[in-house]
Design brief:
Blueprint lengths: L3 H9 L17 H13 L10 H27 L23 H10 L10 H26 L3 H4 L2 H45 L3 H20 L12 H21 L3 H8 L3 H31 L17 H19 L1
Helix pairs in contact: 3-4, 4-5, 5-7, 7-8, 8-9, 8-12, 9-11, 10-11, 11-12
Amino acid sequence: MQSKFFILLLFSIVIISCGTKNKHTENSTNEDIATETAQSDAEPVNLFEHPDFAKKFNAYINFSNRFHKSATKSYEKYLAWVDKAKGPKYGKNTPQTLYELHERSLEKVAKEVDFDPQMKGIDQPMRQVVEKADALYQLINTANGYYEKEDYKDDDFAKGQVLHPQLMKAFEEYFAAYEKISLPFQQLQDETFRFDVEKFKANGQAIRYNLMINLKNVEDIATLIDSLDGSDLKKVDMKSLDEKMKAFKESHNKLENLQNDEAQLEKAFGNMAVFKRSNLDSYVTNGVDFIKNIRNLKERIKTNNFKYSIVHPSIPDKGSPAKLFELYSQMVNLYNRMSR
C-alpha cells in the first residue's frame, strides 16, 4: 500500500520561501475576489511568482509531510496486529489504537485547494485526496475510540469486525487517490526547484543556493539506494554512488565555508539570521553524519556485513539505509525551518 514514491517524496520535499498572505481568506468578499481575479486575468504572472503560490504549495507539501506520513504509519501499525483477511478478532497480537492522523495539515490543504493560483492537473486530484483523507480521518477516530476503551472485551470484537473492512477500504481509496497526484506533484516540485535555484543564484544568495543543491544531491543518493537493504545493497552502482557523493561533498563544503559569512547569512535570512543560524549549523552537522554513514554503508557492502543492532530499525544502525533516510529527513526539516 505504501509506495516507494512516498518515501522519496517525503524525504525530497522542500518548502520554498514564504510568499504574501493568501488574499482569499474567509473574510474576503465576492467583490474582493472578483477584483483580484480581474487583475490576475489582465496581468498574467509566472505561477511561481504569484503572491499566493508559496502559501498554497506549502500547504500541499505540509499535507504530504504530515498527514500522508501519519496515514502510512497508521496503516502499518494496524496491520502489525490485526489479521488483514479475517479482521481484529483473529489477530495474533494485542489490539492497539491506530496511529492518529494529522488533522491540521488536512484542514489547511482543504482550504487552499480552491484558492488561486490554480495548479492544472494537480488541484482536481488533490480534491479527491482531501475527500478520501477526511473519510479515513473520521473512521480512524471512531476505531481509536473503540480500541482505546477496550470495548472489544465487552462485545467480543463485534464492532471491530464491522469496522475492519471499512478501514481497509478507506485506506485503499485514500492511497489510490494519493498515488494519482504523486507524479504530477513531483513534476511541479522539480519545476519549483529549478525556479528557486536560479532565483537564489541570480540574487547572489549563496547559502540558499547551496542548501538546495545539497538537498538535491542527497535526493539523488536516496533515489539510487531506493528501498534496497541487506544483501540487496550489493546491487547499488558504487561508481554512481561515489560520483553523487563527490557532488554532495562539494556543496556541503561550500555550506561549511558560508556558515560564518555574516553578509550571506543576512542575504539568506534577513533579520531572522540570528535565529536561523543554529538551523544552518545543525544542517551542516547532519551533513557530516551523512558522509560518515555513507562510508559505513560502503564498508558494510564491502565486508558483506548487514547485521544490525537489536534496536534497529527503531534506532537506525550506522551505515544502514534507515539511518541515511533518517538523516535526510532531518536535513529536509531543518531546511524547512530556515524557510519559514
